[in-house]
Amino acid sequence: MRRKLDSSLLEDKSFISEDTSVKSLTACMNRIYRRVQTGGLSPEAMRELKPDAEFVADRFRIDEESAVLLAAILEKSGTNNQVDDEDLAMYLGCTNIEFIRFHEKLRDMEKAGIIRYLGGRCNHRCYSVTNETLKAVESNGNFIPVKMSGLSTEEVFTRFRKYFDSFRNDTIDCERLLEELDTLVRFNDHLSFCRKALDSALYNDCTDTERRMFYYLCHRFVTHGDTSVTLDILTNFTEFMEDDECLKRHFTHEKMSLQKAGLVSFANEDGFVDINSLSLSDQVKAEFFTDVEAAPEESAKYRDIIRADSIDAKELFYNKAEGEQVDRLASLLDEHNFKEVQNRLSASGMRRGFNAIFYGSPGTGKTASVYELARQTGRDIFLVDVTKLKSKWVGDSEKSVRMVFKIYRRMCRKCPKAPIMLFNEADAIFSRRIENVEQSVDQMNNAIQNIILEEMENLEGILIATTNLLSNLDPAFERRFIFKIEFKMPEKGSRAKIWKSMVPSLSEGDAEALAGKFAFSGGNIENIARKSTVEYILSGNEPTLSLLETYCKEESMVRNDNRNRIGF
User: Fold this and answer.
1) How many CB atoms lie within 10 A of CB 522?
2) Which end is more exposed in the chain, N or C (fewer Cβ atoms within 10 Å of the end residue's Cβ)?
3) Quick one: pLDDT at residue 205?
4) Helices 335-347 and 320-333, axial angle in degrees (round to 10)
5) How would residue 564 be classed by pLDDT, with cut points 50, 70 and 90?
6) Minimum mean pLDDT among 3-17, 142-156, 459-473: which range?
7) Amino acid 91: pLDDT
8) CB 567 within 8 A of CB 366
9) Where are the beta strands (DSSP E) in 28-123?
């Protein structure tokens, strides 16, 4: 356990003092803390510290007494000690009753994002400084706050998404997660959602864990259109000493306060109750989200959003022709160029949308190129799951396809940048229409294709389709793609670069030798690189050229024997 530093130990120690004429946040706040810690906040101390307090107050846009409080909170934030109201009262040299007049100053600094409320013990509130405050002190610059109040409901749920992402990535724990969510709700009580939450049993009867679960259900409903979440996922928000299995049992027996208050209910799919999943109650859906446009509930079934900032950079190597075409498309998708081109097309009475198709052999980097374009241009990917578009029920497939484009239009309106709508392996749905229809399934396929053709005509965003089999594409679809980029098998020079990228231990000569001997796609080379990595993990030996050639021969045999090629 980390040893706590007792500040009283500083009294008998000395440190090289800073020049009192130095004006920096660290120097001023240190002088304030030492002076008040020694003698309290007397009128004499305030007169003595006025230049330092004014300097700090100006940088943080607070008054001088708040600057004195901030110095103490900053000092205590550097240890495991929690600074609460009683600690601050002792620091100032006043009683707890006298300290009440400072409560509003602390609330103002909390609301401004200068300090963070950490909960409390024995009716005392505990505080620490925020990362933005620490950055200002470290850089000796002006405090730049993260706006916490006066947000719109859309902005609140954007923050929800970021906090839940941070929790999923283990950058904040469940206690800190709830602190941030509670702060957002408290400071934005002008919003219907926040008022409803504050006035509900959520803040009166429910536990902290239940509150986290409820906010996660709200986040999934508004941001992703999810109608339910499994208990297995929701128990990720329990605290360290809570028994997950016991909590699940309480939910299945409807003993939790969230259920008793009518805030959540069991999921209901096609009339069947699922006691292993929870949903927001109909009342919550009707009353809590009046000032925010929630994602259509159907959207959760048909799409997956891949955030641009979650895509890892990947070095891709192209032959000259497709490299130039991909670069041209990347330039178009740059937001400034994209908006300008759209405006000019509108002025000329032309369609504003852009449809592109990437076609070629499996493993040549078609899908990887879409991901890299999205990452470079900061555009999310709206990945359409083609398998979920077709239904055995008459009329459902057509509704599904229309819903997909409806969701995408909404995303284009709401997102700062139009996402890329990706139909991967599109020949499954963009195939040739059947002329002499005899079966209902053929009629359904033609109806789906007619809807897609119509939607492509009216598209105002970006649609990219990938396919291994361009010959299967209906001519009507082909005409609607303004960009058609063929991804050919990589030439020898490109193959050598791919080899060197995938297997860094290879020399330039060995990479060129393998590239010359085996006419592989990038996907084939990646398979071999993964196999050699497994071998290295098991044996600890770097792959030799001889071993790689063996793997190449095995990959060649697979290619020759496998008629149903799988894309990469």
Assistant:
1) 25
2) N
3) 92
4) 80
5) very low
6) 3-17
7) 94
8) yes
9) 83-84, 115-121
Q: What span, in angstroms and rounded, lies between the C-alpha atoms of 119 and 137?
A: 24
Give strand pairing partners of 485: 358
What residues have CB less than 8 Å from 349, skipping those under 6 apart? none
Helices H, strands E: what count in the chain? Answer: 26, 12
The per-residue pLDDT for range 406-437, each reduced to its tens digit, is 888 888 887 889 999 999 887 777 776 666 65
Q: How far from 412 is each of 325, 382, 462, 464, 547, CA to CA, in Å?
A: 25, 11, 9, 15, 50
What are the tens digits of pLDDT across the range 359-380? Answer: 988 888 999 999 999 999 999 9
| Contact yes or no for 168/208 (Cβ under 8 A) | no
Percent of the chain with pLDDT over 70: 86
- Residue 300: closest CA among 234, 221, 219: 221
Cα separations in angstroms, 551 against 190, 256, 280: 64, 57, 53
Give the mean model confidence (pLDDT) for residues 517-521: 90
Question: What is d(CA 503, CA 526) in angstroms, rounded to the nearest whole number?
Answer: 9
Please say whether the beta carbons of 29 and 71 come within 8 A: yes
Residues 6+ apart with CB under 8 A from 173: 167
SS3 breakdown of the chain: % helix, strand, coil, rounded to 5?
55, 10, 30
For the stretch 113-169, pLDDT in tens is: 898 776 554 456 788 888 889 999 999 999 987 778 899 999 999 999 989 988 887
Residue written as tokens 């050229």?
A: 545
Residue with tokens 């495991």: 80
Mind giving me the DSSP string for 175-225?
A: HHHHHHHHHHHHHTTTSHHHHHHHHSGGGTT--HHHHHHHHHHHHIIIII-
Q: How confident is the model at residue 9 (pLDDT cuts 50, 70, 90)?
A: very low
Q: What is the pLDDT of residues 214-250, one digit of tens each?
A: 999 999 999 888 888 889 899 999 988 889 999 999 9
Helix (H) or strand (E) holding 383: strand 381-384
Q: How far is CA 280 from the centre of its chain?
A: 22
Question: How many Cβ atoms sit within 10 Å of the Cβ of residue 551?
Answer: 18
Neighbours of 43 (CB within 10 A): 7
**Position 212 pLDDT exceeds 90:** yes
**CA 101 – CA 97 distance, rounded (Å):** 8
- The helix-helix angle for 131-139 and 43-60 (nearest 10°) equals 100
SS3 478: helix
Residue 248 is predicted with a pLDDT of 92
Q: What is the CA radius of gyration of the chain?
A: 30
Q: Could you give the 3-state DSSP secondary structure of residue 496? A: helix
Cα angle 86, 88, 93; round to 5 = 95
Count CB-CB contacts under 10 A for residue 13. Answer: 6
Instruction: With a cut of 50, say whether residue 568 has pLDDT above it.
Output: no
* Cβ burial, residue 16 (10 Å; 0-12/13-18/19+): exposed
Q: What's phi and psi for 130, nearest 5 deg?
A: -85, 165
